[in-house]
Amino acid sequence: MKIQNNKQHLEKITKLKIQTNNKKGSNFFLFSYFSSFENCNLFVVCILFFVVSNCFAQDVPYGVPVPKPVKTKIQVGTYIFPGWYRGKGSNAFPRVNINNDSEWRLVAKYPAPRPVLGFYDDSLPEVNDWHIKWALEAGISFFAYDWYWNRGEKRLSRSLDDGFLNAKYKDMMGFCIHWCNHALDWSPNREAGASRDVARTSPSANLDFSPDALVEMINYCATNYFSQPSYLKINNRPVFMVWNMQAVIDANGGTENFKKKVLPKINAVSQKYGFGNLFLVIVNNQPQNLDKTGVADAITRYGFADLVTHSKYKTPGSAPYKEMVQLLPGYWERMRTLKTPYIVSTQAGWNDTPRATKLSWIRTDNNVILFEQTLREGRDAVKSDLPLFIIEAWNEWGEGSFIEPSHEFGFTQLDAIRHVFAPNAPRNKWAHPTKKQIIKYSVFKGKELALARAKEKQLPPALPPQHLWSTIFKADPKKMPGKLIDEIKFDKTNVVSLSNNVKIKGIKNGKLICEVTGSDPVLYIKGEWGNFSDVKAIALKLKYRGTSYNIAELFWQTPSMKMSQETARRYPWFIDGKTHTYLLQFRDNYIRKGKLDTIRIDLPDSPGAIAEIESMRVFLR
Fold first, then answer.
1. What is the pTM of this model?
2. CA 199 to chain centre
3. What distance in Å separates the CA atoms of residue 519 and residue 499, rounded to the nearest whole number?
4. 372-419 pLDDT, tens per residue?
5. Which residues have a Cβ under 8 Å from the Cβ of 283 and sit 6 or more positions away?
6. 3-state DSSP: the chain helix, strand, coil percent, rounded to 5?
7. Residue 270 in contact with residue 222, Cβ under 8 Å?
8. Cβ(22)–Cβ(59) below 8 Å
């Protein structure tokens, strides 16, 4: 009886060891071994048990040290681009199956960028633990996973499902879904008889945003993601981000129908699993266009690569990173004027040469000093009602937008995040993977890896040109160019055609008084200014009182030249309420046709702002 009791005690100990020891099978051996020694001396059995068990318990230390998170007042997140596990296939168009294509092969064609972890397989839990450790120690507390789903089909899903969700430290790091509901290689319309795998950009890709498809998707998310203890929630509401919300609304009969009939259905799924309604976040790069829908709980933006004033966005092309950083505070302020709460976000850089090749767009002179500046200014723009901040991105290696440790920047970007958002934390000693680990994680092996490393010794390709606007912009010029042919001083006889969101408050002493009442405020001025080819410059004299968003735009039109972004110039206005002159002088090589008859002024997008336009002057060559 005593032996039996002791045996039962040993069985309990052994079972406990089975649950906690990674070397499964070793303790099953012990259990079988001791079970056959019922008449053995208990003392000998116990000694033998603990000696052998201790030997098996001496596991090799885990390859990733335990993270040491730092506390922040603001929850900082970063987008994660998945799919770096892919080893076979190529990225030639049309793509056979994007789920097999390896984007590392695109990156490897160029000398940079290069992650500290090498060409890693991000479906490996250990790789994800490095990401989790580094992010937590920088003050980043959640990952927003780019997630590709279309009516039950998934793409690039192993990074999250196999990698992150099986990582040892996954419960330390928050995460949420960013549904990237745009074309990949989804199943096309079966009735059309098209093949299953189509080019990423194919219009035949059958994206299903029907109520049934949305309910199916949220069911899947609730079961597999929302139920995870580290899933990002606000007041028990799972944060669910959507890239193209307008497409979902349009596919469901418009805003009101979506809000009344569809949104309650998907919220009911969330409630069924014990959560509140979805906390819906619109991510699109023009989120202000969806503000009036009232569909989302918050809006944010993915990237700012195309944010320009001095430069012109045209591919292939380039623009200074500094220009983007300088424009962001005004952009954030404008977003704050919307009804929908705005989640402040910023970007680490941009160079999509690996993906776009000959049509690349590059942010030049990217450096950690400017990155820390945009972090600091972004932190100060965050409001207490929604204390979230998002950085684009952790690992967009194919687009040159990354904060993950790299050969180019080391850990300096993470140091900057830690310094800005956890200012009381001491300087961190960053753990590094070993060379053996990097080789173990690598998608590339042998000759392919050697060729990729050899590329790193080559010079980077020449930068594409920085395209200049068709005009030279000057504020408060010392002298005017050319011959003055017309000076409009506003009175009742002027022809001023309005679009929405501009209110004419009156004309006082020849000044046109305008109030901005909403987004995209536009003012049209008609006239007869002769042949556009003879026009040398246009000058505006005005006062402007508004918020920190100060970007205006000027368009022009002739019967043969319609208004477009090619016939426009973005430029900054002073917001100090003082009189300033803004001169736009046309470059000699800018081709102008027809008679200039319309000039359009897009006022800065700041509701409540007041513009007092004193004059508009047109100068000939």
1. 0.84
2. 24
3. 11
4. 999 999 999 999 999 999 999 999 999 999 999 999 999 999 999 999
5. 178, 241, 242, 243, 299, 300, 301, 302
6. 30, 25, 45
7. yes
8. yes
